[in-house]
Amino acid sequence: MDPAPAEPFAEEEYPQGAYGGARPSPPDLLAPPDAAFDGRGEMAPPRAAEPAAQELEILAAVQSQAGFMEDLLVALIDAPTLLGNEGPGQDLMRYTFGGLGLQPVDVPMDADALRAHPGSAPFDWDVRGKSNVVATWQPAEPRDGRSLILNGHVDVVSPEPLAGWTKPPFMAVRDEDWIYGRGAADMKCGLAAIAGAVRGLRALGVRPRAPIHLESVVEEECSGNGTLSCVMAGFTADAGIVAEPFGAAITVSQVGVLWFHVVCRGVPVHAAEERRGINAIEKSFEVMQALRGLEAELNLAPPPPYERFSHPINLNVGAIKGGDWASTVPGECVTSYRIALYPGMKVRDLQDRIEAVVAEAAVEDRAIFENPPEVRYSGFTSEGYDIPDDHPMVQTLAGAFARQSGQPPALVATTGTTDAGILARFGDTPSVCFGPYAEQAHAADERVWFPSVVQTAQVMALFIRDWCGLSS
Ligand SMILES: [Zn+2]
Q1: Tell me: the pLDDT tens digits for 353-374?
Q2: Active site amino acids
Q3: Residue 187 Cα, ligand 1 centroid: separation in angstroms?
Q4: Where in the chain are all domains bearing CATH 3.40.630.10?
Q5: How far apart are the CA of 210 and the centre of ligand 1, in A?
Q6: pTM summary value
Q7: CATH number of 256-382
Q8: CATH topology of domain 11-254+384-471
Q9: pLDDT tens by residue, 148-200
Q10: How far is the CA of 373 from the centre of ligand 1 (A)?
Q11: What angle (nearest 5°) sits at the alpha carbon of residue 448, between those of residues 444 and 453?
């Protein structure tokens, strides 16, 4: 998108989001509610002056946290929280939650416990010493509200290749209303909004009528095991918001994601006798072609709501490692893939199809057949997830959005996966993504439109009032 949007959350200005465009809105957008929800999933009578005044107070209190949110976002971007180095970001979140007057607790990543949990993704990296950070805003009497999880991930993906960036990835730069840096979009902006919403409400002296858990998690970008660890530690709620940067939209459906790695083996010989060898790198391309065939099949008849996308299932060849010398025929090549799966599809079934396709590619090629490729799994094994449009939490959040912005949000499906699925499927916590407007996630010059961070926090604060209830 070229210029900054003139109006906050103007729908035409937001044809795409941080996840790169595959975000059609349903034709039947929610109509803006003409009355506030009363916090119990039913429409309240038309608002009286008093609640309206409280809403305005909330909006102003959160708006006044803009500087705090910007400082936090900048400090988070400056911490290069790549996989294995999330510590400095978590230190900052621990400090931030403490500064809100809450008591942060660490939820460590326990490799054995994770591997024993049916919902965990396999991993071949070291998780020792890594922690999620959770702070609970304890409720006041009467405790008759509904509980809430506000979740964000602190981990970011690599900014490589750096040559594509015009701004430094790990030194936040503000250019008018945009803040640039790795994680500005995905999703340190969301963590800033969560903290800003709670700080604004606390400044008013109010308290929720049910617990609110603030979560800063690790490993959203590779496994979902961070949020799963929080679920395993007992953090569940009546609703969850994952503050991923979807802009003026609430996600009601997401695909699952599977990571897999294909090991092709060849026969290494001196390049002078190249014809005697078998080149593992070249063989891996034949497997790749076969897998593109599977991807095409999966895109043939997408189930709703994915029939609205031209290409909902994306296979990505994300990394390739093969060979080590220009004059040696490479004996091994490992290719790492990411593929999506529709809600309702089982990971095991997709794995079976992948293994069959790889085996078939091997049968068709004698050289591969003699050295059959192997499929390994490490990283995401997430299944898809959806939540009904008319679920009370979706409707309550949509109502809060409409009152903040004057227009309804889009309810969207996404062709990526998020921790909302982990919260819902394993924590029995109905969840959606809702967060700031941002661009270039996982790409160069990643950026967030800062006013939308404040707006997200305002909507979250109104949602807290409607969903959890507030006591003064
Ligand atoms: Zn994310």
Answers
A1: 999 999 888 766 665 557 789 9
A2: 155, 220
A3: 5
A4: 11-254+384-471
A5: 27
A6: 0.89
A7: 3.30.70.360
A8: Aminopeptidase (3.40.630)
A9: 999 999 999 999 999 999 999 999 999 999 999 999 999 999 999 999 999 99
A10: 32
A11: 160
